[in-house]
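Sequence only, no structure available. Ideas?
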Amino acid sequence: MDFRPLIENIDLGVVHHLPDGTISYANKAALDIVGLSFDKLRERRAADEKWSAVTSQMNPLDTHNNPVDITLKTGIAQKDVLLGFLPGKGDDYRWIKMSTQAQVSEAGQVTGVFVTFKDVTAQKRAEDQLLASERKSSHLLDCVPDAIFTFDHRGKIVDSNKSFKKLLVLDDEAELWLPQVFEIAVPEPKNADIDWWCRHLKQQRRLKATAGCGSIQVETGLAKYQVGTEEHGICVLKDISQKIASIEALRESENRYKELVEGTHDLVQSVDEYGNFLFVNESWKRRLGYHAHEVNNLKLFDILHADSKEHCKTTFQEVLKGKVVDTMEISLLSKRGERLTVVGNAVPRMRQGKAIATHSFFHDISELKKVENDLRVSERKFRAVVTNLPGMVYRANTDWGVSLIRNAQNLTGYSDADFLQGRVNWFALIVEDDRKQVIENSELLLTQPVSTKHEYRIKRKDGALRWVTDYKTSIFDESGKLSGIDGVVFDSTDSKVAQEKIIEQVRALRRIAYVSAHHTRRPLANIMALLPMLNGEMHQQANLFMQKEVNELDRVIHEVVAMVEGTEG
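Reply:
I predicted one. Tokens follow.
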């Protein structure tokens, strides 16, 4: 929550000093009180001679008794120190009541000082005048910021100061009676006296204004004094409307805070200096499995896992010394013995400068830890597969630069770092005759999720040419944007060479088969030409037999030729 708008609009001066005494912030009220612009104020330090600062006894204020410097050096807060100074505009002393509060780092070093002060010049002057002369009481009452009025036994307001008139928005000629100002029923005349009015005024907590400014809350101070032979009463009113509003706002804020604490899924606990639980929220009880009456009999170390006890003991002592622990990870034990891993912080609860308890806010990360552990196991398995894979694995970016590559050395002669740091580009390794086709075939990967297989040649670092088989898959996110290209490249040189040898052997076999078939068919043709010339039954039978065998031999030759042609294809 940003409190700056609130600080800017309060009538309390707020200033922040850096460790060297320079001013880094001042609100509007502070600038109005000191009578300087922020730029002019930043040119001064707390103990600057330009302030002509003095104590309440008009003694010069030096560094040794300057509240800001004391807090900067010692870290000790100063409370309601009365000081006088010469403002930027004017040559009359202005009096303030100043309080300081150190801003302390985690290491216990003072990193700055917050200063709050209010203008009590009117009060100081009024006190000075009161001490100087009681005869100037009328003038004194007008200088007092509180509303003051006097009244007689009839309930008529005899006299009042300017603050009273200002409080009721009255002019100087207004004639008032107590029943007009306060909601007091008018008594019988014979029963009306100063004591009666005083008793009823003490019961009043709400002043009813007569000039349309509504009702305000007040505190009353009453006394009697003698005016000749007649008693008069004097009443001092202090407007506490803002105080009441602040209390109500604080109460509302506390209720909201309580609702927030009870409504959060985080585990919230407060532990006293002896380890007893002062407060736990519903999420804490629900997650650890304890009922409210059981928590009263628990101590902090009863719910700690053995692995976290020593660490928590040290941290607990540090917090009780006033240290704020921003991040801590510990393991708790539920009532059922279930281990819960939580992460959170711990802050001290201070009273009169001493830590009397600790407040802790924890987030249950048990499921996250399990997921992280499963992920680590999965990553180890993946790394083992990648490490033992005979090919090179890579993840290419949209510009074809690589963000991940493994096993490049064996395939290319270049290290993984050469590719990752941009010293070597993969496309530059592709043989020029193959490069254009590879680039054209890869363009489809940039437009849609698809898997491809390419065979081409690369030139290793040692100059050797190698055939590779490149399997690529393009990865797109949920919005349809290309996030990368994953691939694996295998060295296929040996299989490519073997394949080419087989093709060459088939071609040679085909040539042999064609030659053999040609030479075999020539005598067959001669025999087939002579067969019709044979006569007689025997010759006819021999002719049929020879014809049959020649046909069979011709069929076999055709099959051999067809088989060779099919093998080449």
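DSSP finds 20 helices and 20 strands in the chain.
Hope that gets you unstuck.
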